[in-house]
Specification:
This protein is α/β, with parallel strands linked by helices. It has 14 helices and 15 strands. It has two domains: 202 residues, Glycogen Phosphorylase B (Rossmann fold), CATH 3.40.50; 163 residues, Rossmann fold (3-Layer(aba) Sandwich), CATH 3.40.50.2000. The protein is 40% helix and 18% strand. Helix 6 links the parallel strand 8 and strand 9.
């Protein structure tokens, strides 16, 4: 069994798609009868597991440094030589078109994972007309795949509005052994030169306009002491203030877990997330979450694990943060921890994904590729 993933959003370290594919690679590496290859323009070929294959590509403005394959033909030829049994495309560009080309040539099933809300990104940058054209393109593209997956119910509905019926909700997951409350470091406040009684809020991710960090920064300014905000990430320059500390993007998951577990509450002010992996990682570390009621993050946070607030409102963010600190945070913390371990550990998520692959292969008569038999832990 040879499974091939192709996407322009894989960069070995960092980003939700990279985390997903790295977790899949590690999980499959324990299943000796499944070979897994990742094709991406953002990596150099490597002989190490997982197998990484470089696809010639070009950087695209506005895509955070990710590169797109130069042509459809080059990755298609690479995949044909690999003779995959199943292909998953993680973006809607040349990689997806190459996957469909190989599907037609070799007769293998092709899966699309709709990770990014491309019409939203285009609308924000180029306007409504361009976004409408992208929706038409995506509808035509994804209807040609054998199976379409989306990380949230919100994204399933958006696919349906584009005429892509039958898309399935497939959440992402977290490594519950890495992201855990025991990672907390009592020295973090001292390292940040903060009083021990500081109410330490944290945001981790890209510093881009759609993350609405200006709202969060203003909310913390209004709240004043003893609140302090730790921003972990990079991107656009953000205003400095005495109530804010910056740390660079954290590629090491164990270090990220240490930082998250050492804070009090994760605040996520964005309203257009397709999923929100950092929210699950924080919850696994025992952090309650304040997030907006719009976007995929709203599907992860419930009254037992945090607070959802009206989007695009500084006042609502202030009220939500205050509400969490006025609640029983030990109870919220325990509920967040137990929810992520029960529902979102990769050891629960990956079998779901393999079952989807198995049903697709069986529907196409590939009964020789029994995923349950092939994916048995050592």
């Amino acid at each position: 069994m040879h499974l091939v993933d192709i996407t322009m959003f894989y960069a070995a370290e960092g980003g939700g798609v990279s985390t997903y594919l790295n977790a899949k690679a590690r999980w499959l590496a324990q299943r000796s009868r499944v070979r897994h290859t990742i094709l991406s323009p953002n990596v150099e070929s490597s002989g190490a597991a997982p197998s990484l294959m470089h696809v010639p590509g070009i950087a695209l403005p506005g895509f955070h440094g990710y590169r797109m394959p130069l042509t459809v033909g080059a990755p298609a030829r690479m995949m044909r030589r690999m003779a995959p049994d199943l292909i998953e495309a993680g973006d809607a560009g040349h990689g997806a078109l190459a996957a469909l080309r190989v599907k037609r040539r070799l007769g293998v099933p092709a899966v699309a994972f709709y990770h990014s809300d491309l019409p939203q990104l285009v609308r924000d940058r180029l306007g409504l007309v361009a976004a409408a054209a992208v929706r038409t393109y995506l509808g035509d593209l994804y209807r040609r795949f054998d199976l379409v997956l989306a990380p949230s119910q919100l994204m399933v509905r958006k696919l349906g509005a584009m005429g892509v019926q039958g898309a399935l909700h497939q959440p992402l997951g977290i490594d519950a052994e890495i992201f855990h409350p025991r990672c907390a470091d009592k020295e973090l406040r001292r390292q940040l030169q903060l009083p021990a009684a500081t109410r330490l809020l944290v945001y981790a991710g890209r510093f881009t306009p759609e993350k609405k960090l200006a709202l969060l920064i203003e909310a913390v300014r209004r709240l004043g002491r003893p609140y302090h905000l730790l921003l972990i990430g990079g991107g656009a320059a953000l205003p400095g203030a005495e109530h804010i500390s910056h740390l660079p993007f954290c590629r090491d998951q164990r270090e990220l877990a240490r930082l998250l577990a050492s804070c009090d509450v994760l605040v996520h002010p964005g309203d257009c997330e397709t999923f929100g992996l950092i929210v699950l990682e924080a919850m696994a570390c025992g952090l309650p979450v304040v997030a907006t009621s719009a976007g995929g993050v709203a599907e992860l946070v419930d009254p037992g694990t945090g607070v959802l607030v009206e989007p695009n409102s500084v006042a609502a963010l202030c009220a939500g943060i205050d509400a969490v600190f006025g609640a029983d945070r030990e109870r919220l913390s325990a509920a967040a921890f137990h929810k992520t371990r029960a529902l979102y550990d990769w050891n629960a998520i990956m079998p779901q994904l393999m079952q989807r692959y198995g049903r697709l292969l069986a529907s196409q008569g590939r009964t020789d590729l029994d995923m349950e038999r092939l994916c048995v832990a050592d």
